[in-house]
């Protein structure tokens, strides 16, 4: 058994031929570049690429497998240079009945062991999605229906960023996941917290007590990979081993969740779209206290305040610790040139964030920046809350 770092939510911006996949993601985000970034710079051992149902990406994967650096594993996943396991995933937007009779939509990340499985899934989902070549297009199926389709192709379904105000089950649809999945609820064994929440907030909801919590980056550019990630204990890196860790089976398990202070997330608190202010009132509000506008984007913290069924956050005894982790790119004064200098010396961001002493870092970038990095690593930075699509800020 050994420990690994995993980020199971990374997008593809363009195919290698330049075809658009995730419109809002960087052009440099393609299948091969993600593998190289995780191996050479990030130090991530398992990465979930969640746009692999696009036929353009499937073509890129087949090309990637033919160049000799990667091959499919017997236990699922693609291994790259014997260092990085790539899980083939698809992010699917489902159509739900939302609150008060309104229509809602939610994102799900689905993973499959083999290329043939995701090919079959892609072909079937093309009958439910208008344009299967693009990422995260609205489907005409619900989460209740989707989980059966995913299982048909040997896959697993994980509700994505479950509390965010747009495109999530709690944020956009219902007050309870059981309302969506009903008798299939036990088939959902993990959820993704999202950048604006953490374990303490999620454990205010009793129906999540037996669910594994995942922290992933939802990266839309190469530098954003591993801004949140999960540490797992596994025997090997493969689809099968990751699933066992998510299910807490045979000694495999999640050891820790590394994530942003939720205040740094883009949707932590409610935000007034009219006067453009983050609203940090004690009680959740749906009307701006500053200008009176009802045009507000509801925050994750505020949504959980409304739907929680516990008086205080209490985690089950086997819940892994949640460690606030500030990526290098979020730290004031740590720019691109500084990060390059650190990576040239210490190889990967995981080394810098987890293994090096402050003295090691100071020898390369000086005392002032080393102090800032060390404060961020120890959770000592002061944070102003984000909201309405704007990241929070570190003082």
Write the layout of secondary structure elements.
Layout: E1 2-10, H1 31-42, E2 46-49, H2 55-66, E3 70-72, E4 78-80, E5 84-97, E6 103-112, H3 115-125, H4 143-152, E7 156-159, H5 169-172, H6 177-181, E8 190-192, H7 199-202, E9 212-214, E10 229-234, H8 239-247, E11 253-259, E12 270-272, E13 278-279, E14 296-297, H9 300-307, E15 321-324, H10 336-346, H11 349-354, H12 358-365, H13 367-377, E16 383-384, E17 393-394
Parallel strand pairs: 1-2, 2-5, 8-9, 11-15
Antiparallel strand pairs: 1-10, 3-4, 4-5, 5-6, 6-7, 10-11, 12-13, 12-14, 16-17
Tag the structure with descriptive keywords.
about 400 residues; alpha+beta; 3-stranded antiparallel sheet
Strand content: 15-25%
Residue windows where pLDDT falls under 50 for at least 5 positions: none
Question: What is the mean pLDDT?
Answer: 92
Instruction: Report the strand count.
Output: 17
* Total helical elements: 13
Query: What is the overall shape?
Result: globular
Biggest sheet record:
10 strands, mixed
Give the termini separation.
40 Å
Summarize the amount of helix as a percent range.
25-40%
Class from secondary-structure proportions: alpha+beta
Indicate the radius of gyration in whole angstroms: 20 Å
What sequence of helices (H) and strands (E) makes up the elements? EHEHEEEEHHEHHEHEEHEEEEHEHHHHEE
């Amino acid at each position: 058994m050994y420990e690994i770092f995993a980020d199971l939510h990374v997008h593809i911006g363009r195919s290698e031929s330049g075809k658009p996949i995730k419109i809002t993601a960087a052009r440099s985000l393609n299948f091969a570049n993600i593998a190289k970034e995780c191996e050479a710079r990030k130090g991530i051992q398992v990465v979930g690429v969640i746009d692999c149902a696009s036929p353009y990406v499937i073509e890129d994967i087949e090309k990637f497998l033919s160049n000799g650096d990667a091959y499919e594993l017997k236990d699922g996943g693609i291994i790259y240079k014997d260092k990085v396991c790539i899980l083939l995933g698809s992010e699917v937007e489902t159509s739900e009945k939302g609150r008060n009779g309104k229509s809602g939509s939610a994102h799900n990340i689905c993973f499959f062991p083999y290329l043939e499985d995701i090919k079959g899934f892609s072909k079937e989902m093309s009958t439910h999605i208008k344009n299967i070549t693009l990422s995260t297009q609205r489907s005409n199926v619900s989460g209740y229906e989707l989980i059966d389709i995913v299982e048909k192709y040997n896959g697993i379904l994980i509700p994505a960023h479950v509390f965010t105000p747009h495109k999530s089950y709690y944020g956009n649809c219902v007050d309870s996941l059981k309302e969506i999945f009903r008798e299939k609820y036990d088939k959902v064994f993990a959820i993704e917290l999202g950048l604006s929440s953490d374990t303490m907030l999620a454990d205010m909801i009793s129906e999540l007590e037996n669910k594994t919590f995942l922290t992933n980056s939802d990266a839309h550019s190469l530098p954003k990979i591993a801004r949140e990630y999960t540490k797992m204990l596994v025997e090997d890196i493969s689809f099968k081993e990751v699933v066992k860790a998510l299910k807490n089976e045979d000694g495999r398990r999640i050891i820790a969740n590394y994530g942003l202070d939720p205040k740094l997330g883009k949707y932590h608190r409610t935000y007034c779209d009219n006067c453009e202010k983050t609203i940090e009132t004690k009680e959740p509000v749906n009307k701006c206290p500053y200008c009176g506008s009802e045009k507000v984007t509801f925050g994750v913290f505020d949504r959980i305040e409304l739907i929680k069924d516990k008086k205080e956050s209490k985690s089950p005894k086997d819940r892994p610790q949640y460690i606030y982790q500030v990526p290098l790119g979020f730290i004031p004064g740590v720019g691109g040139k500084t990060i390059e200098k650190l990576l040239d010396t210490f190889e990967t961001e995981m080394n810098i964030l987890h293994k090096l002493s402050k003295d090691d870092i100071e020898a390369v970038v000086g005392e002032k920046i080393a102090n800032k990095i060390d404060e961020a690593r120890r959770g000592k930075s002061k944070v102003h809350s984000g909201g309405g699509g704007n990241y929070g800020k570190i003082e």
